[in-house]
Design brief:
The protein is an alpha/beta fold. It is 40% helix and 11% strand. It has a domain of 104 residues: NADP-dependent oxidoreductase domain (TIM Barrel). A 4-stranded parallel beta sheet has the order 1-2-3-4. The radius of gyration is 17 Å and the shape is globular. Bound molecules: NADP nicotinamide-adenine-dinucleotide phosphate.
Length: 149
Amino acid sequence: MERAVAAGKIRSLGLSNWYIEELESFLPQVETVPALVQNEIHPYYQERDVVPYIQGLGIVTEGWYPLGGRGYNAELLADPELASIAHAHDVSVPQVILRWNRQRNIVVIPGSSNPEHIAEDLDIHGFSLTHEEMARIAALDRAEKHDWY
Ligand SMILES: NC(=O)c1ccc[n+]([C@@H]2O[C@H](COP(=O)([O-])OP(=O)(O)OC[C@H]3O[C@@H](n4cnc5c(N)ncnc54)[C@H](OP(=O)(O)O)[C@@H]3O)[C@@H](O)[C@H]2O)c1
């Protein structure tokens, strides 16, 4: 892949589903620091050790399954703590989750086939979560991975 960058065939390199141990072993073997690492991240699986490690290397963190994942998100989107935070800002639970990622400097790629959901998921810049609300969401972490790739 580094040769493909040097040849101008691709612009930058990223990784998906890489964690601290794997990165510690991999990075010394390459010359190009990956631009981005994409891992599963949502309030029930927060990667609170991995995210700062990746960001500390100057690598962008991106979260897949930000809303818990297609077919796996009923409980997350009905979470009472998230619903209470959403109610306080007059926004939806998906918007709270996406904003929480934004405030952790995590790029998100929510999936939707519903135009209203897509518009809603993009509209997360008109409110901010407080430190207390960020802490309440942090407390929801239960290391519950929804898929393996
Ligand atoms: N690198 C990897 O290993 C990996 C693994 C898995 C997934 N991914 C990527 O992650 C991305 C997201 O995956 P995903 O779409 O399965 O998970 P997701 O974004 O967590 O969840 C999508 C689900 O949330 C619903 N949704 C979206 N916005 C909503 C809203 N505002 N209100 C209510 N429901 C809403 C969608 O339903 P509607 O369609 O009805 O809106 C869909 O059922 C994709 O690009 C996928 O390729 C990467």
